[in-house]
Design goal:
9 helices, 29% helix
Protein backbone atom coordinates (compact mmCIF):
# COMPACT_ATOMS: atom_id res chain seq x y z
CA UNK A 1 0.00 0.00 0.00
CA UNK A 2 1.86 3.09 -1.25
CA UNK A 3 0.84 5.95 1.05
CA UNK A 4 2.38 9.36 0.39
CA UNK A 5 0.18 11.70 2.39
CA UNK A 6 -1.91 11.81 5.56
CA UNK A 7 -4.31 14.42 6.87
CA UNK A 8 -4.93 13.70 10.53
CA UNK A 9 -8.31 15.40 10.77
CA UNK A 10 -10.82 16.64 8.21
CA UNK A 11 -14.43 17.81 8.45
CA UNK A 12 -14.77 18.11 4.67
CA UNK A 13 -13.62 14.90 2.99
CA UNK A 14 -16.19 12.54 4.50
CA UNK A 15 -19.71 14.05 4.68
CA UNK A 16 -21.12 14.26 8.22
CA UNK A 17 -18.05 12.57 9.69
CA UNK A 18 -14.86 13.58 11.44
CA UNK A 19 -12.24 11.69 9.51
CA UNK A 20 -8.60 11.26 8.60
CA UNK A 21 -7.55 11.21 4.95
CA UNK A 22 -5.00 8.83 3.47
CA UNK A 23 -3.41 9.74 0.12
CA UNK A 24 -2.14 6.96 -2.14
CA UNK A 25 0.35 7.43 -4.97
CA UNK A 26 -0.05 6.85 -8.70
CA UNK A 27 -2.95 7.29 -11.11
CA UNK A 28 -4.10 5.83 -14.43
CA UNK A 29 -5.44 9.22 -15.64
CA UNK A 30 -3.63 12.44 -16.54
CA UNK A 31 -6.36 15.04 -16.03
CA UNK A 32 -4.74 18.36 -16.99
CA UNK A 33 -6.46 20.21 -14.12
CA UNK A 34 -5.45 17.71 -11.42
CA UNK A 35 -4.32 19.45 -8.24
CA UNK A 36 -2.49 16.41 -6.87
CA UNK A 37 0.16 16.17 -9.58
CA UNK A 38 2.82 15.04 -7.12
CA UNK A 39 0.68 12.06 -6.12
CA UNK A 40 -0.46 11.26 -9.66
CA UNK A 41 3.09 11.01 -10.97
CA UNK A 42 4.56 9.52 -7.82
CA UNK A 43 7.00 6.77 -8.63
CA UNK A 44 6.75 7.28 -12.36
CA UNK A 45 9.29 8.60 -14.85
CA UNK A 46 7.31 11.84 -15.15
CA UNK A 47 7.66 12.63 -11.46
CA UNK A 48 9.55 15.85 -10.85
CA UNK A 49 10.02 15.17 -7.16
CA UNK A 50 10.18 12.23 -4.82
CA UNK A 51 7.57 12.04 -2.07
CA UNK A 52 8.35 10.20 1.12
CA UNK A 53 6.33 7.03 1.59
CA UNK A 54 4.53 6.65 4.91
CA UNK A 55 4.72 3.10 6.30
CA UNK A 56 1.32 1.43 6.62
CA UNK A 57 2.10 0.27 10.14
CA UNK A 58 2.83 3.85 11.19
CA UNK A 59 -0.46 4.98 9.69
CA UNK A 60 -2.48 2.27 11.42
CA UNK A 61 -0.79 2.95 14.76
CA UNK A 62 -1.78 6.60 14.54
CA UNK A 63 -5.37 5.72 13.63
CA UNK A 64 -5.56 3.37 16.60
CA UNK A 65 -4.66 6.26 18.90
CA UNK A 66 -7.41 8.37 17.34
CA UNK A 67 -10.17 5.87 18.05
CA UNK A 68 -13.06 7.70 19.69
CA UNK A 69 -12.00 10.98 18.09
CA UNK A 70 -12.39 10.06 14.43
CA UNK A 71 -15.45 8.43 12.87
CA UNK A 72 -13.92 7.35 9.61
CA UNK A 73 -11.06 7.24 7.15
CA UNK A 74 -11.14 8.63 3.62
CA UNK A 75 -8.86 6.88 1.13
CA UNK A 76 -7.99 9.05 -1.85
CA UNK A 77 -5.11 9.68 -4.22
CA UNK A 78 -3.89 9.44 -6.83
CA UNK A 79 -6.15 6.49 -7.59
CA UNK A 80 -6.49 4.08 -4.65
CA UNK A 81 -7.84 1.15 -6.69
CA UNK A 82 -4.40 0.76 -8.28
CA UNK A 83 -3.02 -0.38 -4.91
CA UNK A 84 -2.74 -4.20 -4.70
CA UNK A 85 -3.04 -4.07 -0.90
CA UNK A 86 -6.09 -1.76 -0.82
CA UNK A 87 -8.53 -4.44 0.34
CA UNK A 88 -6.28 -5.59 3.15
CA UNK A 89 -5.66 -2.01 4.28
CA UNK A 90 -9.40 -1.33 4.36
CA UNK A 91 -9.94 -4.47 6.43
CA UNK A 92 -7.30 -3.30 8.90
CA UNK A 93 -8.88 0.16 9.13
CA UNK A 94 -12.34 -1.30 9.69
CA UNK A 95 -10.95 -3.66 12.33
CA UNK A 96 -10.00 -0.53 14.29
CA UNK A 97 -13.65 0.52 14.29
CA UNK A 98 -13.60 3.15 11.52
CA UNK A 99 -15.96 3.61 8.62
CA UNK A 100 -14.32 3.87 5.19
CA UNK A 101 -14.94 6.31 2.36
CA UNK A 102 -13.26 5.64 -0.98
CA UNK A 103 -12.52 8.30 -3.61
CA UNK A 104 -12.09 6.84 -7.09
CA UNK A 105 -12.07 7.71 -10.77
CA UNK A 106 -14.05 4.54 -11.46
CA UNK A 107 -11.68 3.09 -14.02
CA UNK A 108 -11.22 -0.23 -12.21
CA UNK A 109 -14.78 -1.47 -11.72
CA UNK A 110 -13.54 -4.97 -10.92
CA UNK A 111 -11.89 -3.62 -7.76
CA UNK A 112 -14.91 -1.53 -6.84
CA UNK A 113 -17.21 -4.51 -7.35
CA UNK A 114 -15.19 -6.75 -5.03
CA UNK A 115 -15.02 -4.11 -2.28
CA UNK A 116 -18.78 -3.62 -2.50
CA UNK A 117 -19.47 -7.35 -2.51
CA UNK A 118 -17.27 -7.76 0.57
CA UNK A 119 -19.19 -4.90 2.27
CA UNK A 120 -15.95 -3.04 2.95
CA UNK A 121 -17.10 0.43 1.91
CA UNK A 122 -19.42 2.82 3.72
CA UNK A 123 -19.32 5.70 1.21
CA UNK A 124 -17.90 6.16 -2.28
CA UNK A 125 -17.20 9.41 -4.14
CA UNK A 126 -16.60 8.82 -7.84
CA UNK A 127 -15.32 11.48 -10.19
CA UNK A 128 -17.27 11.65 -13.44
CA UNK A 129 -14.82 13.67 -15.47
CA UNK A 130 -17.06 14.78 -18.34
CA UNK A 131 -19.82 13.72 -20.70
CA UNK A 132 -19.26 10.55 -22.73
CA UNK A 133 -18.01 12.27 -25.87
CA UNK A 134 -15.45 14.41 -24.05
CA UNK A 135 -14.20 11.87 -21.52
CA UNK A 136 -10.86 10.82 -23.02
CA UNK A 137 -9.89 14.46 -23.50
CA UNK A 138 -10.93 15.38 -19.97
CA UNK A 139 -8.74 12.67 -18.45
CA UNK A 140 -5.75 13.56 -20.65
CA UNK A 141 -5.80 10.28 -22.56
CA UNK A 142 -6.72 11.18 -26.10
CA UNK A 143 -4.82 8.84 -28.41
CA UNK A 144 -2.75 11.63 -29.98
CA UNK A 145 -1.69 12.87 -26.53
CA UNK A 146 -0.81 9.53 -25.01
CA UNK A 147 2.89 9.96 -25.72
CA UNK A 148 2.82 13.27 -23.82
CA UNK A 149 0.77 12.09 -20.85
CA UNK A 150 2.16 8.63 -20.34
CA UNK A 151 -0.93 6.86 -21.71
CA UNK A 152 -2.82 4.01 -20.13
CA UNK A 153 -0.86 1.24 -18.42
CA UNK A 154 0.48 -1.11 -21.07
CA UNK A 155 -0.41 1.32 -23.84
CA UNK A 156 -4.09 0.30 -23.86
CA UNK A 157 -6.75 2.61 -25.27
CA UNK A 158 -9.14 4.46 -22.97
CA UNK A 159 -12.31 2.40 -22.34
CA UNK A 160 -15.46 4.33 -21.45
CA UNK A 161 -17.32 1.11 -20.63
CA UNK A 162 -15.25 0.83 -17.44
CA UNK A 163 -16.62 4.17 -16.24
CA UNK A 164 -20.18 3.17 -17.14
CA UNK A 165 -19.80 -0.09 -15.21
CA UNK A 166 -18.65 1.71 -12.07
CA UNK A 167 -21.53 4.18 -12.32
CA UNK A 168 -24.01 1.31 -12.53
CA UNK A 169 -22.34 -0.50 -9.61
CA UNK A 170 -22.73 2.50 -7.32
CA UNK A 171 -26.29 3.24 -8.41
CA UNK A 172 -27.30 -0.29 -7.39
CA UNK A 173 -24.99 -0.65 -4.38
CA UNK A 174 -27.35 0.38 -1.59
CA UNK A 175 -24.62 2.40 0.16
CA UNK A 176 -24.28 6.20 0.27
CA UNK A 177 -22.37 7.53 -2.74
CA UNK A 178 -21.87 10.65 -4.79
CA UNK A 179 -20.75 11.53 -8.27
CA UNK A 180 -18.80 14.74 -8.84
CA UNK A 181 -17.31 16.74 -11.68
CA UNK A 182 -14.76 19.52 -11.52
CA UNK A 183 -16.00 22.15 -13.99
CA UNK A 184 -13.10 23.61 -15.98
CA UNK A 185 -13.43 26.34 -18.60
CA UNK A 186 -11.29 25.34 -21.55
CA UNK A 187 -12.14 21.69 -21.02
CA UNK A 188 -15.90 21.63 -20.45
CA UNK A 189 -18.88 23.56 -21.76
CA UNK A 190 -21.90 24.62 -19.74
CA UNK A 191 -24.20 22.62 -21.98
CA UNK A 192 -22.49 19.27 -21.45
CA UNK A 193 -23.61 19.23 -17.82
CA UNK A 194 -27.07 18.51 -19.12
CA UNK A 195 -25.59 15.47 -20.87
CA UNK A 196 -23.82 14.39 -17.69
CA UNK A 197 -27.07 14.79 -15.74
CA UNK A 198 -28.93 12.63 -18.24
CA UNK A 199 -26.16 10.01 -18.05
CA UNK A 200 -26.39 9.94 -14.24
CA UNK A 201 -30.19 10.20 -14.11
CA UNK A 202 -31.70 9.00 -10.84
CA UNK A 203 -28.41 9.06 -8.93
CA UNK A 204 -28.34 9.76 -5.21
CA UNK A 205 -26.24 12.94 -5.39
CA UNK A 206 -24.19 14.92 -7.89
CA UNK A 207 -21.73 17.68 -7.03
CA UNK A 208 -20.28 20.22 -9.46
CA UNK A 209 -16.96 21.56 -8.19
CA UNK A 210 -15.47 24.85 -9.28
CA UNK A 211 -11.95 24.64 -10.71
CA UNK A 212 -9.27 26.46 -8.73
CA UNK A 213 -5.78 27.28 -9.88
CA UNK A 214 -2.99 25.74 -7.86
CA UNK A 215 0.76 25.35 -8.07
CA UNK A 216 0.20 21.58 -7.96
CA UNK A 217 -1.87 21.40 -11.15
CA UNK A 218 -0.60 18.88 -13.68
CA UNK A 219 -1.06 21.08 -16.76
CA UNK A 220 -3.28 24.13 -16.31
CA UNK A 221 -2.42 25.96 -19.53
CA UNK A 222 -5.53 27.60 -21.00
CA UNK A 223 -7.77 26.47 -18.13
CA UNK A 224 -9.89 28.72 -15.93
CA UNK A 225 -12.87 28.71 -13.57
CA UNK A 226 -16.45 29.24 -14.70
CA UNK A 227 -18.43 32.15 -13.27
CA UNK A 228 -20.96 31.55 -10.51
CA UNK A 229 -23.75 32.23 -13.01
CA UNK A 230 -22.38 29.55 -15.36
CA UNK A 231 -22.07 27.05 -12.52
CA UNK A 232 -25.67 27.73 -11.49
CA UNK A 233 -26.77 27.03 -15.05
CA UNK A 234 -24.84 23.73 -14.98
CA UNK A 235 -26.68 22.87 -11.77
CA UNK A 236 -30.02 23.66 -13.40
CA UNK A 237 -29.26 21.51 -16.43
CA UNK A 238 -28.10 18.51 -14.40
CA UNK A 239 -30.99 19.00 -11.98
CA UNK A 240 -33.48 18.06 -14.66
CA UNK A 241 -32.34 14.45 -14.16
CA UNK A 242 -30.96 14.27 -10.61
CA UNK A 243 -32.88 15.40 -7.52
CA UNK A 244 -29.85 16.43 -5.49
CA UNK A 245 -27.35 18.59 -7.37
CA UNK A 246 -25.08 20.93 -5.43
CA UNK A 247 -22.21 23.30 -6.12
CA UNK A 248 -18.89 23.18 -4.31
CA UNK A 249 -16.00 25.60 -4.18
CA UNK A 250 -17.85 28.83 -4.96
CA UNK A 251 -17.66 31.94 -2.85
Amino acid sequence: MKIYGFQKTTLLDYPEHVAATVFTGGCNFRCPYCQNAGLVLCGGQESAQALAEIPREEMLAHLKKRHGVLDGVCITGGEPTLQPELEQFIREVRALGFQVKLDSNGYRPEVLRRLLEQELLDYVAMDVKSCRGNYARAVGLEREKNHLRGGMPGGADFCLERIEESIALLQSSGIPYEFRTTAVKGLHTVEEFGEIGEWLAGSRAYFIQSYRESGEILDGAGLAAFSTEELCEMKRLAGRYIDRVELRGIE
